[in-house]
């Protein structure tokens, strides 16, 4: 049994995409754009290309998008030329690194954008002198982790899904099970190579273009296209314990669920028992059972401990499980670093193939010291006694950002355009349709249901809350998203930088910054 994936409860994998073919002869729908790209020898696809669907299919089938063209750059010059062509011909631009945006923002979020697919910018090179990894903007997390380990037994903090692209993940946070020990992926960024809206290529760092460096770490989709990351690394742990415990009895009543959650929240807050090496998420699953006609419910505690199995069994497990009912199922295994990452990934590998399904998600960040009993009663009351679940599977994850000795919140809020630095839990809520359902078949009441769950968490919450920009909620307006992702002070500065570097609003999606 693996720890359940944090998005996509069930998914279909399609075959690996083939090599890019030449665009179709003659123009398709945008002749001026195509002539410009062709003249600059930029590889691209358009809707009449024979393999168009291999590149234009969104991972979230609920949000299909049709780009005006898909650019497949082999170097940063291709990116620069494509941005110039698109801007001069009046097209908006978005970059796709892995394509996992819940709103399909890498495809533009709405039809008609020029999508710059960075899949060919996928090399990872580790300096043995500085232990800094230079990572292409289209690199996926699994291959990146494999490369830095192979080249120097190093590691980078990142999420669990091997197919997620570094581009959006790192520039909008980047939570994973190593984040309590090492910080978010965004905290590992030392330098960036970026293409701006006028096609200029530049490098940014704390000492070179510091305003851009600040803005790109939190709002890169609005400011520029990162073609290369310079990331700090850590010595890879020699041993990591992956654990998962499933409890059916916890969800027998609201009171039992609240008691279990409160017990675990107290545990992770106890500095005499817990340090930064432990990370976990508390996951609630509810899904229809076609055989019984009822709902299957389970509560799962899953995570990692960067230490020995002996220490975990002796010092962590007994205290974590104390006061909880006996788990229905459990698995505790010791792995080396790469084995641990592979076991956490949805497909059990680090290759990270595409996973397609129709789903909707939202998020709530809950500041320190976490959720009080009244908030937990509303949360579990909605799930267990609230409105009926539509014909979808629900997964609600409380992902631990805070707790004893956690390192995420030690970074100053002023250091980047990512202001979430007092978070204890991030609620990551998702509803997913059966694998054969597409956009037209996705039940709209499922969106309403999940929005209700978000409101149940927020209703009467006594600590500050916001939303996590890597978990895009497509129901939010641009203004709502800005308030939740950034807040007024950060937003004012972002607007000034947007006006200076992208006054024509070339880089645009439904929730991007507007000057």
TrEMBL record:
The keyword Cell cycle does not apply. Residues 1-20 form the signal peptide. Its cofactor is FAD. Residues 63-236 form the FAD-binding PCMH-type domain. Pfam families: BBE, FAD_binding_4. This is Reticuline oxidase. SUPFAM superfamilies: FAD-binding/transporter-associated domain-like. Belongs to the oxygen-dependent FAD-linked oxidoreductase family. GO terms for molecular function: FAD binding; oxidoreductase activity. The keyword Flavoprotein applies. Keywords: FAD, Flavoprotein, Oxidoreductase, Signal.
């Amino acid at each position: 049994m693996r720890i359940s994936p944090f998005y996509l409860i069930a998914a279909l994998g399609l075959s690996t995409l083939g090599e890019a073919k030449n665009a179709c002869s003659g123009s398709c729908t945008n002749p001026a754009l195509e002539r410009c790209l062709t003249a600059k020898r930029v590889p691209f696809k358009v809707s009449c290309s024979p393999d168009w669907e291999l590149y234009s299919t969104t991972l979230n089938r609920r949000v299909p998008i049709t780009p005006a063209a898909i650019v497949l750059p082999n170097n940063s010059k291709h990116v620069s030329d494509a941005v110039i062509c698109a801007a001069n011909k009046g097209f908006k631009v978005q970059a796709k690194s892995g394509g996992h945006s819940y709103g399909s923002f890498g495809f533009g979020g709405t039809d008609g954008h020029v999508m710059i697919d960075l899949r060919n910018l996928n090399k990872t090179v580790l300096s043995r002198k500085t232990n800094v990894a230079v990572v292409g903007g289209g690199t996926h997390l699994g291959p990146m982790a494999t490369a830095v380990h192979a080249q120097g037994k190093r590691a980078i903090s990142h999420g669990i899904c091997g197919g997620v692209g570094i581009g959006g993940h790192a520039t909008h946070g980047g939570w994973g099970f190593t984040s309590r020990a090492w910080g978010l992926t965004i905290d590992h960024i030392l330098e960036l190579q970026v293409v701006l809206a006028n096609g200029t290529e530049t490098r940014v760092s704390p000492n070179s273009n510091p305003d851009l460096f600040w803005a790109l770490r939190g709002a890169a989709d609005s400011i520029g296209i990162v073609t290369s990351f310079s990331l700090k690394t850590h010595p890879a742990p020699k041993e990591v314990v992956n654990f998962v415990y499933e409890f059916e009895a916890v969800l027998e009543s609201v009171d039992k669920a609240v008691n279990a959650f409160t017990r675990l929240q107290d545990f992770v807050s106890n500095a005499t028992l817990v340090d930064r090496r432990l990370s976990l998420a508390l996951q609630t699953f509810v899904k229809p059972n076609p055989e019984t006609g009822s709902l299957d419910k389970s509560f799962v505690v899953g995570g990692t401990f960067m230490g020995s199995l002996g220490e975990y069994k002796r010092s962590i497990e007994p205290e974590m499980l104390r006061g909880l009912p006996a788990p229905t199922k459990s698995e505790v295994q010791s792995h080396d670093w790469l084995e641990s990452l592979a076991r956490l990934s949805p497909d059990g590998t680090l290759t990270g193939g595409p996973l397609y399904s129709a789903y909707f998600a939202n998020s709530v960040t809950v500041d320190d010291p976490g959720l009080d009993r009244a908030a937990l009663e509303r949360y579990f009351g909605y799930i267990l006694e609230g409105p009926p679940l539509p014909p979808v599977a629900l997964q609600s994850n409380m992902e631990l950002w805070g707790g004893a000795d956690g390192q995420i919140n030690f970074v100053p809020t002023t250091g980047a355009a990512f202001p979430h630095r007092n978070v204890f839990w991030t609620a990551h809520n998702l509803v997913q349709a059966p694998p054969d359902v597409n956009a037209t078949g996705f039940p709209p009441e499922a969106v309403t249901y999940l929005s209700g769950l978000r409101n149940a968490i927020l209703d009467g919450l006594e600590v500050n809350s916001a939303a996590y920009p890597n978990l895009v909620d497509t129901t939010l307006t641009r203004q709502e998203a800005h308030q939740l992702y950034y807040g007024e002070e950060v937003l004012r500065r972002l607007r000034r930088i947007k006006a200076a570097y992208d006054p024509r609003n070339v880089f645009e999606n439904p929730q991007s910054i507007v000057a």
